[in-house]
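User: Show me a protein chain along with its predicted structure.
Assistant: Here is one chain, sequence first, then structure tokens.
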Amino acid sequence: MLRKLLIGFGCIEIVRPQPVLDMCERIGLQNPEDVQLRERALWGARLEGLLFVWLLVRGREGSTLVSALLALAGTVLVLLPQPVIELSQRLVYENTDDLEVKPWIEPAARALGALYLLVVVLSVRSDDDAAEDAEIATA
């Protein structure tokens, strides 16, 4: 069930990334109405959604490189969120000096990192479940 929800979220992020970015801005910024998005921000959100869908549908078959990169990003976000927050703000917004972050931005970034790790774990687990089902079917 969780896999299906995350696949659905990834599909929404691919097709309509703006509402997802708006939600993230409301969660993390005091002044979301003052932000100036770079054009590539929407493509970055689409890429994130695509990675979620790719891994959750294809599992390890999809790409071990993609799994490793998402796991690395998740681990860094969980352990060292502040540098990633600063980097992502520079990549996503034109006016980074004007951004006023909310006090819970670091826990929110850690939660995003945990979400990345969850996607990786679920993609691996789906492969293990499929292998077990194949073994049961041949027995």
